[in-house]
Automatic annotation (TrEMBL):
<dbReference type="InterPro" id="IPR004358">
    <property type="entry name" value="Sig_transdc_His_kin-like_C"/>
</dbReference>
<dbReference type="InterPro" id="IPR003661">
    <property type="entry name" value="HisK_dim/P_dom"/>
</dbReference>
<dbReference type="Pfam" id="PF00672">
    <property type="entry name" value="HAMP"/>
</dbReference>
<keyword id="KW-0597">Phosphoprotein</keyword>
<dbReference type="GO" id="GO:0005886">
    <property type="term" value="C:plasma membrane"/>
</dbReference>
<keyword id="KW-0808">Transferase</keyword>
<dbReference type="InterPro" id="IPR036097">
    <property type="entry name" value="HisK_dim/P_sf"/>
</dbReference>
<dbReference type="InterPro" id="IPR005467">
    <property type="entry name" value="His_kinase_dom"/>
</dbReference>
<keyword id="KW-0812">Transmembrane</keyword>
<feature type="domain" description="HAMP">
    <location>
        <begin position="189"/>
        <end position="241"/>
    </location>
</feature>
<keyword id="KW-0418">Kinase</keyword>
<dbReference type="GO" id="GO:0000155">
    <property type="term" value="F:phosphorelay sensor kinase activity"/>
</dbReference>
<feature type="transmembrane region" description="Helical">
    <location>
        <begin position="167"/>
        <end position="189"/>
    </location>
</feature>
<dbReference type="Pfam" id="PF00512">
    <property type="entry name" value="HisKA"/>
</dbReference>
<dbReference type="Pfam" id="PF02518">
    <property type="entry name" value="HATPase_c"/>
</dbReference>
<dbReference type="InterPro" id="IPR050428">
    <property type="entry name" value="TCS_sensor_his_kinase"/>
</dbReference>
<dbReference type="InterPro" id="IPR003660">
    <property type="entry name" value="HAMP_dom"/>
</dbReference>
Length: 471
């Protein structure tokens, strides 16, 4: 920023200085040319300085024009002037004026800051002194011949003025560049101080993994960057917190089936050392181990699903939601044959992951089937509960015939590993509804629960139509 400010000001000063220098130089030359031309034309018309006696008898100094050189250049190439004064430069441009008599010549002769003149030649009529000594007759054309009155003025004063002006412009420009560099450096240091603080905070996070927000002052771009950085830290902190809770809850939940499996295996090993168990006791122990293994497998699968903490699905495809729900109903109905199923489905296309949506719908149906069977129900082929499934306009509602959800448990039913007091005696890990919420959020939908009037718990899953989604 310091270099940019210095270069920008330097270029601006250079452009302005050059423009000012050229403009002043051109104006001074124009004023000088006008002054010389007006005086030369006036002198040519008065025909005083164009008479040989007057020209040779009086030099410019006698007229108070010490910086002026005066001479006449005749059409036949004679250079005439005062004997005690140097003649002005008279060459082909001035000769052309003397011969053509129709234009004025203006040119600069010499080197700057040296012998430097501005030369003006105007058409004139020159009168050489007649041999009989009589004065020139203005009315007698035979006394006059074509010539050029040449006037030259030294440019030393103008050159000195322009030289001084150039020094002043260079000095002012240099001071401007230095001042711009100092100001740019001060502004850069002041403006980038929040960025340095932000960089320090990022380095602190990388070094210590401590997700501490940085203070934000102002509303400029760097302040907005700091706000975004703090939002990123907050999101990262939430993600870490979810991971810690998931690991802690998973460790707690995994400990129970693992402890049960180890206990049963120890009992089996001890019994084998004492001669073994009765066949029916041994089979019961193995069945218990097998059930614990199934529970552990399901728990690990649920944990794996929830560990995919991605904001949205990546490989979405166009799927028919009604087919997903129908397949889930068939699967759960086989596991709960003692329930009556009231199913009504309407076609509804969505973009999404068919496997994840299928698991979410299956979890909803499994949850409804589990709570629709009373504890004292007799399974003699007669339905003991009812599960109602409706899919209309992308809204899937699953209503069971169980006791419903307690008001204190409603805000927590979708939390990971949450088990109500009534559900702790039933099989499950407390992750099924959490997976449903996870799937709904990944597909841009939502899920909520309530108690249906005259029935049990009702879960409503909403998903957006495929036409409103982008792949």
């Amino acid at each position: 920023m310091t270099l940019l400010a210095a270069v920008a000001v330097g270029l601006a000063v250079a452009v302005v200085s050059i423009a000012a220098y050229v403009s002043v130089r051109q104006q001074m030359y124009q004023n000088l040319d006008k002054s010389l031309t007006d005086r030369a034309v006036s002198a040519a018309k008065q025909q005083v300085l164009t008479q040989q006696n007057n020209l040779e008898g009086f030099g410019p100094e006698a007229l108070g024009l010490s910086d002026i050189l005066l001479g006449v250049y005749t059409a036949d190439g004679q250079r005439l002037g005062n004997e005690d004064s140097p003649l002005p430069p008279m060459q082909s441009p001035e000769l052309a004026v003397a011969q053509d008599q129709d234009e004025i010549s203006k040119r600069t002769v010499g080197a700057a800051m040296g012998t430097h003149y501005r030369v003006v030649a105007v058409p004139a009529l020159f009168c050489a002194q007649p041999t009989r000594g009589s004065p020139c007759n203005a009315d007698d054309p035979s006394d006059w011949e074509p010539a050029a009155l040449v006037v030259a003025q030294s440019l030393k004063p103008i050159d000195q003025t322009l030289h001084n002006m150039g020094i002043v412009l260079w000095a002012v420009g240099l001071l401007g560049v230095i001042g711009a560099a100092i100001a740019g450096n001060a502004i850069a240091v002041s403006g980038l101080r929040p960025l340095a603080r932000l960089s320090g905070a990022a380095e602190h996070v990388a070094r210590t993994a401590e997700l501490r927000a940085i203070p934000v002052d102002g509303s400029d771009e760097i302040s907005r960057l700091a706000v975004s950085f703090n939002a990123m830290l907050a999101a990262l902190a939430q993600s870490q917190d979810r991971q810690r809770r998931l690991i802690g809850d998973a460790g707690h939940e995994l400990r129970t089936p693992l402890t049960s499996i180890r206990t049963n295996l120890d009992l089996l090993a001890q019994a084998d050392k004492r001669g073994g168990l009765r066949p029916e006791d041994r089979q019961q122990l193995l069945d218990d181990v097998r059930a614990q293994m199934d529970e552990l497998t399901n728990l690990i699968g649920d944990l794996t699903e929830l560990a995919r903490d991605t904001p949205q699905i990546r490989n979405a495809e166009l799927i028919e939601l009604s087919n997903v729900v129908e397949d889930a109903v068939i699967k759960v109905r086989r596991r709960a044959p003692n329930l009556e199923w009231d199913v009504s489905l309407e076609p509804f296309p969505v973009w999404g992951d068919e496997r994840l949506l299928g698991r979410a719908v299956t979890n909803l149906l499994d949850n409804a089937a589990k709570y629709s069977v009373p504890d004292d129900a007799r399974t003699d082929g007669v339905p003991v509960g009812l599960v109602t499934v409706r899919l209309q306009d992308g809204v899937l509602t699953v209503t069971d015939s169980g006791p419903g959800i307690a008001d204190a448990d409603l805000p927590h039913v979708f939390e990971r590993f949450y088990r109500s007091s009534e559900a702790r005696g039933l099989p499950g890990s407390g992750l099924g509804l959490a997976i449903v919420k996870h799937a709904a959020e990944q597909h841009g939908g939502m899920i909520y629960a309530r108690n249906a009037p005259g029935a049990g718990a009702q879960f409503t899953l909403w998903l957006p139509h495929a036409a409103t989604q982008t792949r």
